[in-house]
Amino acid sequence: MDLLERFAAGDLEAFEALFRQHQREVYAWTVRIVRDTGAAEDLTVETFWRIYRARQRFDPAAGNFRAWARRIATNAALDHLRHARKETELSEDFPDAHRGDPATQSELRGHLRRAFLGLPPKYRLVATLALIEDEPYQEIADAVGISPALVKVRVFRAVRMLRGKLNSLGLEVTAK
Amino acid sequence: MTDKMNHPDEQELQALLKREFLPLETAELQRDLWPRMLRRLEAHAPRVPWFDWALAAAVAAMLLLFPNVIPALLYQL
User: Fold this and answer.
1) From B25's CA, which of A30, A90, A108, A170 has a CA 20 to 30 Å away?
2) What value does the mean pLDDT of chain B take?
3) Cross-chain Cβ contact A20/B25 below 8 Å
4) Measured distance CA(A111)–CA(A117) in Å, rounded
C-alpha cells in the first residue's frame, strides 16, 4: 500500500509524511494570498486539518494530492479573507516596494491599498495571484476551481472596481 | 490561458499594485508546523463521553461485588 492509500485509509504516519512533504508549498501558496505570515501558518494547519477530515473522499488512484491540497488551501485562504475582510490590513511582515517615493504619490498609494483590500474576497484573491504574483490564469483556475476564462473575467472586474474607486476619489492611475 | 493585462491602462494599474504589494514568491516557512498540527488533531480526537465511562465502571463494580449475577447476565445475552 503506498503513502496516499495509507493516508486515505486513515494512517496517521502517512498523513505526517504528506504534511512534511507539502507544508512548505501550502504555506508559500497561502501567504501569497493572505500576505500575513502568522495567518498563513494558521491557514496551513487549517488546510491540513481539512485534508485530514476529507481523507476518505480522496482517491489515491486518480487523485493528485498536490493539486487537491492547493485547492483546499485556496478555499481556506478565501474563507480567511471573507472573515477578516473588515479588520484586514496588510501585515508589515513584508516591506513595501517603494519606500522613499515622493509625498505626492502617498495619497494614491494609500487609496490604492485601501481600494485593493476593500475588493470582494473572490476578486481580491484572483487579483492578488494574477496581478501581483503573476500566476498563470490556468494555475489560478485550478486552485480556485473555476475556468481560466472566469479568472480573466474576475481580474478584469477587479481592475474595473479598483479604477472606479480611484477615479471616484479624483485620482488618476499612471505608473511612473 | 496566459494572455494577461493587455490593455495599457490595466498594465499601469498592475505596475502600481506591484509597487505597493511586493510579490512573495520567495516567502518561506520558517518552522515545522507538524507539532501544531498534532495538537489540533489531538484536540479533536474522538472522546468517550464521561457517562459511558461511568456506566462501564458501574457494571464492572457490580460484577465484582455480585459475581453470582454473571451467569444470569450471560443467560440474558
Assistant:
1) A108
2) 83
3) no
4) 10
